[in-house]
Design a protein that fits this description.
Layout (H helix, E strand, L loop, with lengths): L7 E6 L8 H10 L3 E6 L9 H8 L3 E2 L15 H7 L2 E7 L1 H9 L5 H8 L4 E5 L3 H5 L1 H12 L3 E2 L3 E4 L5 E5 L3 H15 L6 E6 L4 E2 L5 E2 L6 H12 L3 E6 L11 E5 L3 H11 L5 E4 L6 E3 L18 E3 L3 H8 L4 E8 L3 H12 L3 E6 L11 E2 L1 E5 L4 E3 L3 E2 H16 L1
Cofactor: Mg(2+); FMN
Keywords: Decarboxylase, Flavoprotein, FMN, Ligase, Lyase, Magnesium, Metal-binding, Multifunctional enzyme
Catalytic activity: (R)-4'-phosphopantothenate + L-cysteine + CTP = N-[(R)-4-phosphopantothenoyl]-L-cysteine + CMP + diphosphate + H(+); N-[(R)-4-phosphopantothenoyl]-L-cysteine + H(+) = (R)-4'-phosphopantetheine + CO2
Length: about 400
């Protein structure tokens, strides 16, 4: 999954021959999972049509403050557009458009939107090589970057004039790669390694049957995805689940039993900064699982169980630098039991669930948790989608390293 997934990107297109490449650029943004809107200068429509871009982006394309051809035309609100975006990308950025951006000459919808934007702005220059080297253009580069805008360097190659040199707009795939790399580098968990456990464990009774639980793994997978989106490198150790966490920063190790999860956790724990134990690990397993399928011959069947190793407690005993987060699913004396686990398992933070709370626990899209830290500071949260709960957990980690 790209870091652009779910992001709102406003693409500004100015009037240069490189505008024809923006159709490919829109496709790549959409493929990365972004929501794309396009604002064009009137001159740019000579090089690429609004119909093409609206079809690819699945959003209307605007180029003027209102459509003069419509009898009851509505105003295209540049302020709304500027505030909507998570990122603004101006490509191609011609010498004329960059000069207006630098001076604040607000004579078209694109510049008005740029001046209203509160988000990071990337610009990809495109012009002939003499224009690219002209002092006025170089001054625009300097001014725009001083304003906090991020320049995507032009490439060297054949230009529309027939000359060859610097000034060619970066290729669409290179623009996307540049933006992704820049975002990743600035994310708050960049450089951090996080271990996350997720899902149930299955403890074999025989080759066909097992003891398990109702965990879907969704909470752990949401945590892994949210952490990866903040730049962390994730080791996801997952029990049996149909869910998958697809992200370039996530390495998934699939396990089945509690012992397999224990071994995998200990293999990676020493090299991580954070460990989040969100898996619902079986407390007991059959002591003597059968190597053959047990036949249904008797009216009753007794299975002797033995305790599994407490993975979280074992990690707590060996932790040194790690920020260790556990989960507690309780049905009675919730706060007291959770605090006892913090001490017993040497945790830095526990995320308490109560099955007494409607909408919490297994097989739901929501969760209602209470955060308790190692100093017993208690912070109850409202019922939220599990994705938002995962975000709250990741924010706790970000605050820890702030």
């Amino acid at each position: 999954m790209s870091v652009l997934s779910g992001k709102k990107i406003l693409l500004g297109i100015s009037g240069g021959i490189a505008a024809y490449k923006t159709a490919s650029l829109v496709r790549l943004f959409i493929k990365a999972g972004a929501d794309v809107r396009v604002v064009m200068t009137p001159a740019s429509k000579d090089f690429v049509t609004p119909l093409t871009l609206s079809t690819l982006s699945k959003n209307p394309v605007v180029s003027t403050f209102f459509n003069e051809e419509e009898k009851d035309a509505e105003w295209n609100n540049h302020v709304e557009l500027g505030l909507w975006a998570d990122f603004m990308v101006i490509a191609p950025a011609t010498a004329n458009t960059m000069s207006k951006m630098a001076s604040g000459t607000c004579d078209n919808l694109l510049i008005a939107t740029y001046l209203s934007a509160k988000c990071p702005v990337y610009f990809a220059p495109a012009m002939d090589l003499d224009m690219y080297k002209h002092p006025s253009t170089l001054a625009s580069f300097t001014s725009l970057q001083k304003f906090g805008n991020i320049m995507i360097p032009a490439e060297t190659g054949e230009l529309a004039s027939g000359l060859s040199g610097e000034g060619r707009m970066a290729e669409p795939e290179n623009i996307v790669a540049f933006i992704e790399a820049d975002i990743l580098q600035k994310l708050p968990l960049k450089g951090k390694k996080i271990l996350v456990t997720a899902g149930p464990t299955y403890e074999a009774i025989d080759p066909v049957r097992f003891i398990g639980n109702h965990s879907s793994g969704k909470m752990g997978l949401d945590i892994a995805l949210k952490a990866a989106n903040q730049g962390a490198e994730i080791i996801l150790i997952s029990g049996p689940t149909h869910l998958q966490a697809k992200h370039q920063n996530i390495q998934t190790i699939f396990v089945t039993s509690a012992q397999e999860m224990h071994d995998a956790c200990h293999q990676y724990f020493d090299n991580v900064d954070v460990a989040i134990a969100a898996a619902a690990v079986a407390d007991y397993r059959p002591k003597n699982p059968s190597s053959q399928k047990i036949k249904k011959t008797e009216a009753t069947l007794q299975i002797e169980l033995e305790k599994t190793t407490d993975i979280l407690a074992a990690l707590g005993q060996k932790k040194n630098k790690q920020f260790l987060i556990g989960f507690a699913l309780e049905t009675e004396n919730e706060i007291e039991n959770a605090k006892a686990k913090i001490v017993k398992k040497n945790l830095d933070l526990i995320v308490l669930n109560s099955l007494n709370d409607e909408g919490a626990g297994f097989k739901t899209q929501t969760n209602k948790v209470t955060f308790i830290d190692k100093n017993f500071h208690t912070e109850p949260m409202n019922l939220k989608p599990k994705e938002q709960v995962a975000e709250d957990i990741i924010n706790k980690i970000i605050q820890h390293y702030a």
